[in-house]
Structure formats: structure tokens, C-alpha cells
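Subject: mismatched residue count in predicted assembly?

I count 822 residues in my input, but I want to confirm that the predicted structure covers every chain. Input:
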Amino acid sequence: MKRLLTGNEALAEGIIESGADVVTGYPGTPSTEVVLTLLHQKEKLDMYIEWSINEKVAFEIAAGAAWAGKRALVTMKMSGVNVIADSLSSISYSGCNGGLVIFVADDPGVSAGMPEEDSRYYAQLMIIPMLDLASQQECLDYVKIAFDISEKIGGPVFLRSTTDISHVASDVLLGKKLYMKRKAQFERNIAKFTKARAAWCMEQHQDALDRLEQSSEISDSYITESGIHINATHLAKNSQCGVIYAGAVQGNFQEILKKYNLDISWLKIGMVHPLPEKIIRDFLSIHERILILEELDPLIEKEVLRIAYLINKKITILGKLSHALPMIGAYSFKIIRKGVEVLLDKKIGTDKNIEKILMMANQLTIKRSTSFCVGCPHRGTYYALNKAIKKLRYKQDEVIVTGDIGCTILGMNKPFESCWTEVAMGASIGLAQGFKHAGIEKPVIATIGDSTFFHAGIPSLVNAIYQKVNLTIIILDNGWTAMTGFEENPGTIPFGKKNTSRIDIKKICKGCGIENLFIIDPYDAENSIKTLMKAIDYLGVSVVIARRECALQAKRRKKNTIKYVVNKEKCTGCRLCLNELACPAMIFFPKNEKSKKYMSINSTCTGCGLCQSICPLGAIEVKNNGN
Amino acid sequence: MEINIYISGVGGQGAIRLGQIIADYALQKSKKIKLFKEVGMAQRGGAVHCEIRIGNVFGSRIPPYSSDATVVMELSEGLKALEFVKPGGTVILNNHKVYPIDLMAQPEKYPEFQEIEALFKKTKAKIIWIDAKKIAKEIGLPVAENMVLLGTLSQILSFDKRVILGTLEKNIPCEIEKNLYAFQEGYRITKGIKK
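Triage response: the counts match. Full output below for your records.
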């Protein structure tokens, strides 16, 4: 049977078919939907699934389950691998008893912010085999292979996807479900599972290297249920040219072969670490010109250069290092076509010259700067913060406000432009301390969301308290990990029946000994401004929890929220509300022959009331029922 | 055989749902499919677009000048699709402008219909103007704008009407009757201008 599935949904299906026992993860675009898909069918799955507090904890839980002989998988975006790195190396060196698969989704072309890093380096660094996904079908098929390899070699296996695989939907053939219930069991083996002796550590190092070699042997002969070879070679007749590729580039490359009716030899690599050295060697020995297609860094290209050197053959190797292809971004149809043109040393595209039209279109296209969602509590917090700074007689460019990951960073957008920096999960609080120690005399303020605070903000908060840093920390607590699609976190109020116990950020702060702790309601602009002024003025660590549930989530549950309307008689069209709050529910009507200029609020209004509280003319009123 | 459909709009217009229904239709027809969705900032007034590729296709994105049907749900956003329009293909220009917040006070900066149309005319594609929002409003369900366009698309691309209607019903959570009516309207008004 075939179903229309995105890569991530197919991966979730693969996890179910693999008979996995434990699945954990931390949300991060473009990896999030794997766990989401599983959670939606949690009730009927015999599988433990959770959103963990951060990637490191998620990974350790999966590793523990795999050490107990079970099948476990953990999901994250590329930034998450940075977070798990510490535990990852130890667990890779020790190996595991059950199956352990680490799913990571990279984001070439940056669909969702964060550095465009290449997680394939981690496979090399950590001595872990890595399978690179090239289609949605592979997402399903390769989970099974990854578990199989992991169990055969006795160590973790990376499964790597990219945005173009994870977020694109395709017709995917479902496979057979494996039933493999085993008893949890962990045998004591101190020499394998601890690191306290040099001899043990070095033995473990050797073991990891041996496992890697073994995985290479296994992968060479693999064919999936739906007939995909992990490493596949196609030899064209009388072709001196060949393409070596891996990952998402497959789609556009095959598209080009079809569209321009080309027959070029190619070698598709499904296991990018360790590379199939013998297969590459054979491929190089029968071709004169080679093009390497891989997104992000030239890892395969460098290895191919090395292998070419070893076989002592003069081959032209084209790719990023030869400047045939760019180092950054996703590889579009056009980029790959250009690469193929360099390989064949001739033009294959016959595009009309419409550059001028495209330029004109580009100039005409209006830019859509994004704002907070309608009713977003963060709008109120940043509005109040800017006002508080102003009322304390500082200019906005005098008070450093560090931002953090998640929806809260949208405070860098117009009209607020509050956040100055964005680094990594939880980094706002650490950075802010650095600014103070460097000698910044004016106030420094850190802003962070609830999920980000749980993820990595707590240690830096503790540090700030311990070191008595003069700092204001605003925790924008909307109760959800909202940016990635409204996942729950330890602070989420458990609606309905849940087997979790909620942790209140207020209690964490109190427990750490914060004396100057304030709770504000971002919808109450006046009090929020006053409180923030007090907190900023305080000498020492002050924490302000701006607490109000994510408006989209609140709207999903409640039906009859109040709405606001503009009294057209009173409104002068001054646009103060629009300029200060930029709420997507606001519409401005300019003056015309029939009417004066005025503001209006559309039906998406969730009734936060901020605009009403700042309108100097009282022109914004509660909408009466049936009016 | 290959069909490429490019749909562009802004958050809330239902561009993604439209794409999903067409992709689901293709699945019912046992075709190979690639469905790309750009949703990023949809909730926050951002651009949304999707690309549906049906048939003997490999890449997730439509190659330049290959879109058989280009649905411009929001006029300015549609300009981003220009590069993909296939000469001889069809462009459906939906008469709908969504002003971003920073342009609200200067609506004159929004490009004119004529300017946008002139650029699309240069692609040598057939252009169909439609006011799907108005039609949907008249039906009493403004959000069915996308279903009007689905009707239009189904007419232009000669979809199997029975199957596409079945797919529509399966993918619409409520107000089925009005959505079906919106489809029929879009289907009806485009009759006679098949590709």
C-alpha cells in the first residue's frame, strides 16, 4: 500500500515498522514531525514516546534503553547534535546492546534560522556510521536498516535527513512491521560502560573503529524491502564522466538526467560515513571526470580526492573545492544543472533569457515582514519592555537585550526591535552575564522563552545568582514550545488526562533564591511596564515571568473569547496601534472620496486588548455579541 | 507524463490545503507525487507556497519554466512564481491583495493589477483572471476561496471530477456543502477555456 507522507512522517512509519521500543526527541525544524506523528497515535502504539527537556537528555534516555537491549531512536535538528555531543562520544566508544539510532535533520538553505552546519562531521568525529536519506521512501526503509546495522555492529547509527527530504511529501510504499519484543536486560560490564581507566578507554576506542569498518562491509550489500540499494552504481555507455552524489541532491540530479535526456554514470552513496571506499575506487578507475554532488561541506569530495591520490590516477574532480558548486545553501535544479554543465563542459539548458523580467518581478514583489501572531502575549511583553526602558530614561540602543531561540526571538522584528542577539538555546542569560562582567554599566536584560529556559537556561540562571550579577531576566512563559508547532514542555499545563507532573518556573526561580521575582500579565500593559521598570532598576538578579498562554493554543481550546472593534467615529486613523503593536488583525483604511482614514480589526482578533489599552482616543471597544 | 502545479499565497488562504488535496487526488490516481510546502511564517502574515509534481518526477521543486498551472492566490506573492511558469501553460490570477503591515499606510506601493498581469503575459502562458474570494463570499464561506480555485484547476487540468470531489470531501473537516459548491463554481466559470 502507498500513502502520501512527508519524509518525517515516513520516518515515523519506519520507526513503527522497526518495532522500536523507546522514541525521544526535542523539537527543532526540520526534524519535529517525526515525534509529533508518533505522538498522535500514541494510544495504539506499544512504544514509549516523549518530548524530552533537551536533546542531551533525550539522547541519554534513548541510549539507556538501547543499553538495556531495546530498540531506541532519538530525533533532533542539527543544532541538537551540538547539545548531545558530550554524551554521544562516550556512548559511541562504549557501543550498545540493543539498537540505537540518532535521527538528525540538517537545514541547507536555512528554512528556520540557526547556523547552516553539516552534521555529517559528527559521524566522523564520533566514529559512528551515518546513512544519508535521499528520498521519502528511504526515510521509511532506512530506519529498519539503521536499526539492523546498529544491532549487528553493537553501536549507534546516525540517520541524516535534510529539509528537502523531511518536509516534502511523496508517495511512499509501506513495508512489513517487525515484532521484536525483548526483555529489558543490562549486563554489568564496567570495562565497557565506564571510562575510568586509560586501558579501557583505548580498548573502547579500538572497538568503535572496528564497528565502523564492520558497518561498511554490511552496507555494501544492502537492498531495502522496496528495492533501494544503499550504495548504487549506474554505468553509462561510453561515458568518461561520472557523478558521485549523496542525499537530497538525488531528486534534482535525476530530474536533470530525465529532462535533458542525459546518460551519465553515477554513484549514489547511501552511507556517507564510512564511505564505500572500494566502490568509489572502482568508479574512479573507469572515469576521467568526476562531479561530486553533496549539500553543505565537501566531505565526500575530500575523501574522493584522497582515494584518487591513492589509486594514482589523474582524474578531474569537480565540486565545491574546484568552485564548480557553492559551499552554502540547498542545491536547486539550476545549481545542479550548472554543475553537470561543468562536468560535461557544455551547456545543456536552453532557458530563455527572462532575467530582466525576473528582476522587474523581484522589484515589484512586496516584502512581508513578519510580526507576532494575533494575540501573542510576547507582543505585550516587548511593548512593555521598550516602554519601561524609555520611561527609565534610557535610549533603546543603550540597553542591551539578549534574545534566545524560539518565538521570543521575534522580538527582534519591527516594530519592537528589542532583541540584540540570538545565539543558542539558553545562551541569552550567559551572554548577558558576560556583558556585565565586561563592564557594561547600563542595564542588561536577557529574554528567554519557557521551553528554552527548561532546555538550557536553568544552569546559566543559577550561575548568575551564584555570582551575584546585576541582571534582569525576562522569562516569556507561554506554556508551550510554540515555534516548532506547539509541543509540550515541563511547564505546560497538562490539559486533560496526562501522566506528567508540571514544573512551575516560578518555583524554580524561588528555589534558586531569587528575591526579586515578578509575575506579569503581558496583556496588562500598564502594570507590566511598571513592574519591568522596578525589575530593571533592581541591583542584582531580578526575574520577571511574563505569563500568558500562547494565543493560538488558547484559541484552540476556548470558543467564545471577546473581540474588539474600532469605533469609526472616534478613530482618527493615527495608526498608533498599528505602529506600536503591528498586530496582523489590524487593517488600515486610507482616506478616499467616500471616507476618512481609519483603522479596523478583522475577525481573527483574539481579544488580548492591548490595542484598546494604548489607544489615546478610546476608539477601540469590546465587540458586543451579535453586533 | 508530468504535471507541475505551483500555488502561491499568504497564510490563511488555504494554499497548503489546496496542494494537499491535489496531491491526495494524484495518489488516488496511483501517480508518483512530490509535494513541497513552504509554511514558515504562515500564522504571522508570511508567504506560503506549495508545489505539486505529479507523474514521472524526481525533484521536489518545479524546474524553471515547467509549471503547467500556476495559481496566484495573492497577487504580489505570485510574482515569485514567474520563473516557473511554462510557456503555453496556464496562470490563474486570483484578484486578491493582502497588504503586509508595513505597507498598510502606503497602499499605493502595492503593485497594480496591470503591472503584474503584464509580467505574466511575457511568459507566454494563458492567463485567467478570477475573483475566488468574491465567489466564496457570495456562497457564504469566504475561506472556501481555495476550493473555488480547486474547481478552476480541475477544469483546466481535466481532473477526474468524481475522484477529485471525493478527495475534497475527505480533506475538508466541515461545511462540506458550501465547499463543494465553491468547487462547482470555480469549475463552471472556467468551462470553455480548457488548455
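Chain A has a mean pLDDT of 94. Marking this ticket as 'not a bug'.
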